[in-house]
Each structure stands twice: as structure tokens, then as C-alpha cells.
Design brief:
Helices cover 66% and strands 3% of the residues. The protein is mostly helical and 547 residues long. It has 3 domains: 104 residues, no CATH class; 112 residues, no CATH class; 212 residues, no CATH class. The longest helix is centred in the middle third of the chain and has 28 residues. The chain is globular, with a radius of gyration of 23 Å.
Length: 547
């Protein structure tokens, strides 16, 4: 779908991807670690666990600096596609170095070790294999590697911010439950016996890791190193806009969404505020429902919508399975989320995860989650499946260009999924005013996240002021404070939704009139998840060359 990059850039890219696949095979194979590329070569190392010892991390950092230096010394390429590849690689390397060398998440984020360990075992069990012997052999190897990973984490961790601390303790327990599930779900006594001891050893290692977390204890979020939001957005995401401009974009989205919300409220029920209208609405009859069936039907309808709109561009529409969120991921995933395959191998599955919980549970949290999943199912489905993450990821995995096939950008990735939600109303797929109000509420939430992410950095918000903004879009006060703490630990990511969507709309305004709807979107998606300034440059060159 895209030209191959020229030899020099291709050679450096190959060395970079191979280095990371061997050092971090689990994290490169997973979409949980946005600072790393999705290196398809990692599929060859399903028995090896990531090495997060300080020595190994230092070695990777040294090697990436060397490759980065080689790319920086390359003269600006004559071919614009090759130059885009070069700059995309530089931004990706910058993001990795920010995390490993400057922020040093491995020093204060215990979730890094827990997620890599659990995901590594999951991949060993579920990824394509020759036979059962290979499956169980590599699973045993990964379990042994999980123990080593936890030991490395115990040595590396020095301070743990409160939000990470609380979620990590919860995840320790969920990881232990996951190990018990593995043994319970295995077929055959011989296979179960093969993994009983390795699982028991990891179970004990998790208990010791939890004790180590207790020894360190929680610290304030501000106690760990961070990179200024504007610097991260420019170096890693390749964004050319100032933080003030990003804040203004979010302000405008917030204001426009409020005005639209007020218009809808008056039309639907002028006697209630918009929160009351939103909370009283459930699609259908509002009675008993099966979330999995609800989402399954919706995804099929959205797939058909994408066919009609000409968005199904990948040669293969990889299967999307709707499933309960895996036990070990429940502490770190939202109610609905997407998990992408690594390769284009048709035996690999893509997952739409739903945290439905116990349908008989009457706890306030479970009830609120189920109602939200029911109320927002159309937009959650569009965001995570078609035309959102699943469609975008399907196209990326089949790109001919090896750089863009393996590099994701949070700004493009989340911006596209948020933009995908807007296609529902734009195409006439959603017309009901109550559904449009749900959409509007989600836009307010995205704008709030962008305002807070940029506003805290610009000192336009205090922590209390930011929490107050979240309360105004439906969060409880204590929940809002917790959200702000989490935002501060991952600066830059929260603004990706609103800013990314804005950039796509801005490109549309410039290029869609001369290209048409289908061609614009085809060229955008087949160009890979590149910085938007480079996407605009690519569009200009394609127009100039008559492509």
C-alpha cells in the first residue's frame, strides 16, 4: 500500500526493530506500551521474556542513541516518502528514550513489570503455534521469565506514585487469579502437571512483589521525573503546535460541545439538565440486556457502514472477537477496549474487550459501568472497532512500508478513533437526539481531558480546578481527583484525542475538496500513523505528482 523506504533508512530501521524485538519481545508485541513500536519480528520470540535489568536497559539506550545519531546525520532525503520514514523513526526513537532514559518509568511504575509478565504468558498460550508441545514449552519459559522480571522490578523500583501503587496492588491479586485460571482451563492432566510448579512459583513471586511494593509505599505523583508536555508532544508525537494553541483548540471544542448540548437538552426535555437527560436514557427498552450480543450486532452494522463508505481498505478484514476483559487486565483497562494482533497472520485474533462484570452484582460501580457500556455502545463500538482502532490497525499491519507498518503514534491512533465516532452522525448513521446527546457528552469528556493535560502544564488549572472540570462532566469528586493524578503520570496522552481529531478535520478542510471523501481517507490511512505536519506535506506532494 506504500512505497518501500530507501536503503539507508531501511537498514537503520531494520536494526532498530530487531534490537527492540530481542530486548523487549513482549512489550513490542503488545499495544499496552505506546513508547515502543509494534515490531512484528517479536512474534519469533514467544518463549523469551523482556529483560528490564538496569544493564539491559542501559544497553538498549546506548544502541538507540547510536542509531538515532546515524539517522540525524543522514541528509534530507530527495524522496518525500523516504524523508517521512526518517522523521517518523526519529520521533519514535525520541519517545522510547524519553521513557527509558529521562522519565525512567522502570524506576517507579510497577505496572510495567506486571503487564509485561502477564501479557507475555498470555501470548505464549494463545499466539499461533505448531503444536501443543511448542505452546506449553514456551509458556513454561515465559513463566520462568515472569519470575525474573518481578525480581528485576523489586530491585529497580525506588518510588511509586500513589495511583500506580494502588492499581499495582490490585493487579498483583488479579495476576494470581489469572494463573489459577490457566491451570483450571487446561485440558488434560499431563498438561496441567507441566505448568503447576511454574505457576506456583510465579504466584509466590507475585506475593513477594506485593510485599516489596508495601515496603516502598506510595508517594505523590509529582515526586517522579517527568518531561514537559510541550516537549514530549513535539519530540515524540511530532506536533508543531504550541501548548497555548492546543489549549485554545480544546477550549473551542468545549464551548462548541456545551452549546450543542444545551440545544439538544432544550429539544429533548427543557425541564431537566443535560446530566439528568443523559443518565435517564438507555437504548432500547432499558431492561435486561446482553452486552456481548449488543456489541456484536453493532460491530456488524458498523462494518457494513464502513464498506458503504469505502473505508475497508486492508486486503484482509482480520477477525474481531468480543470477549470479557482478561482477569489480569481489568485493573488497567476501561470498560471497553481494543487489543490488536501483532502480525497479519490470520490465525492471530483481534479482541474487543468488555468488562461486563457479574450481571447479578448490585454494587454501585458495577451498575454504573454496565449502564455506561449500554448507553454509549454505539460510540464505544465505533471507537474501538469500525471505523476506529480495529480498522486503522488492520490497514497498518498490511502496509508494504516496513517502517509505517510497525510504528504507531498515540496522537494519530487516538485522534483517528475519536474522529471515527464523528462519522456516525456525519453519515446519518446516528440521528436520534438522545444518541446525539450521548455523543456530545463524550466530546465534552475529551475536551476536558485535553484542557486539563495542557492547562495543568500551562498553570491555567490548579489540581482542584481540574478536578472540578471533571465533576462537571459527570465524575464523582473523589473519582475526579484520582483521574487527575493518573493524568499527571502520563502527560501528553490525554490531549491526543481532541488534538488528533482536530488535525484530521484540519487536513480534511485543506485537501478533501480536491480529492473527494473516499480518496482523502484512503491516502490518509495508507500513509501510516505519521505526524500530521508530515501528513500535510505528503498530501501536497501527492497532489503535485498527480497521485
Amino acid at each position: 500500500m506504500s512505497d518501500q523506504p530507501a536503503s539507508n533508512v531501511s537498514k537503520i530501521a531494520g536494526e532498530y526493530f530487531s534490537l527492540l524485538a530481542r530486548a523487549f519481545p513482549v512489550m513490542c508485541a503488545s499495544d499496552e506500551f505506546h513508547f515502543l513500536p509494534r515490531v512484528q519480528e517479536a512474534a519469533q520470540f514467544l518463549e523469551i521474556m523482556d529483560d528490564l535489568s538496569q544493564k539491559a536497559i542501559a544497553s538498549v539506550v546506548y544502541s538507540v542513541h547510536a542509531l538515532q545519531g546515524q539517522l540525524q546525520k543522514q541528509p534530507r532525503a530527495q524522496d518525500f516518502e523516504e524523508e517521512i520514514d526518517r522523521q517518523l523513526l526519529l520521533h519514535n526513537m525520541a519517545g522510547l528514550l524519553i521513557d527509558l532514559e529521562e522519565v525512567k518509568s522502570w524506576r517507579h511504575n510497577p505496572l510495567l513489570y506486571l503487564k509485561a509478565g502477564c501479557i507475555g504468558v498470555d501470548h505464549a498460550l494463545t499466539k499461533p503455534r505448531r503444536d501443543g508441545q511448542e505452546r506449553f514449552g514456551r509458556t513454561a519459559e515465559r513463566l520462568a521469565g515472569f519470575r525474573k522480571l518481578l525480581d528485576e522490578g523489586s530491585k529497580n523500583l525506588s518510588t511509586i506514585p500513589g495511583p500506580y501503587y494502588r492499581v499495582a496492588l490490585d493487579m498483583v491479586q488479579h495476576a494470581q487469579l489469572y494463573l489459577e485460571e490457566i491451570l483450571r482451563d487446561l485440558d488434560g492432566q499431563k498438561r496441567r502437571e507441566q505448568l503447576v510448579l511454574p505457576c506456583a512459583e510465579v504466584h509466590e513471586a507475585l506475593s513477594n512483589f506485593g510485599l516489596r511494593l508495601g515496603e516502598i509505599g506510595p508517594t505523590p505523583a509529582a515526586s517522579v521525573p517527568s518531561v514537559p508536555v510541550e516537549e514530549l508532544v513535539q519530540r515524540h508525537f511530532g506536533c508543531t503546535r504550541s501548548l497555548e494553541e492546543i489549549y485554545s483548540i480544546a477550549e473551542q471544542e468545549w464551548q462548541n460541545s456545551l452549546e450543542e448540548m444545551e440545544r439538544l437538552r432544550r429539544s429533548i426535555n427543557p425541564d431537566h439538565n443535560w446530566q439528568q437527560v443523559y443518565e435517564s436514557y438507555l437504548p432500547g427498552n432499558g431492561g435486561e440486556f446482553d452486552l456481548f450480543r449488543l456489541y456484536g450486532r453493532e460491530i456488524e452494522r458498523l462494518r457494513e457502514l464502513c464498506r458503504k463508505l469505502g473505508l475497508m481498505m486492508a486486503p484482509v478484514d482480520q477477525e474481531l472477537v468480543i470477549a470479557e476483559t482478561p482477569t489480569y487486565l481489568r485493573p488497567v483497562r476501561s470498560g471497553a477496549s481494543y487489543s490488536a494482533p501483532l502480525t497479519a497472520d490470520s490465525r492471530e485474533l483481534a479482541f474487543f474487550y468488555v468488562t461486563a462484570g457479574d450481571p447479578l452484582s448490585s454494587s454501585p460501580m458495577d451498575i454504573l459501568r454496565r449502564k455506561r457500556l449500554h448507553r454509549e455502545f454505539r460510540f464505544l463500538s465505533a471507537h474501538e472497532s469500525y471505523p476506529g482502532h480495529h480498522l486503522l490497525d488492520n490497514i497498518r499491519r498490511y502496509l508494504d512500508n516496513p517502517v509505517r507498518r510497525q510504528v504507531e503514534s498515540p496522537l494519530f491512533y487516538e485522534g483517528w478513533a475519536y474522529y471515527a465516532e464523528s462519522i456516525l452522525a456525519e453519515s446519518g448513521y446516528v440521528e436520534d437526539e438522545l444518541e446525539l446527546l450521548v455523543d456530545c457528552k463524550r466530546r465534552l469528556w475529551r475536551a476536558a481531558r485535553c484542557l486539563i493535560d495542557s492547562g495543568l502544564a500551562l498553570q491555567k488549572f490548579t489540581k482542584d480546578g481540574a478536578a472540578g472540570l471533571l465533576v462537571s462532566v459527570g465524575f464523582a469528586a473523589d473519582e475526579a481527583v484520582g483521574q487527575i493524578e493518573r493524568f499527571r503520570l502520563n502527560p501528553g496522552y490525554q490531549l491526543c484525542y481532541s488534538l488528533g481529531k482536530y488535525e484530521i478535520v484540519h487536513l480534511r478542510e485543506r485537501f478533501l475538496p480536491s480529492m473527494g471523501w473516499k480518496r482523502f481517507h484512503r491516502l490518509l490511512l495508507e500513509g501510516g500513523e505519521i505526524p500530521f505536519a508530515l501528513a500535510a506535506w505528503r498530501f501536497e506532494n501527492l497532489k503535485k505528482n498527480g497521485s
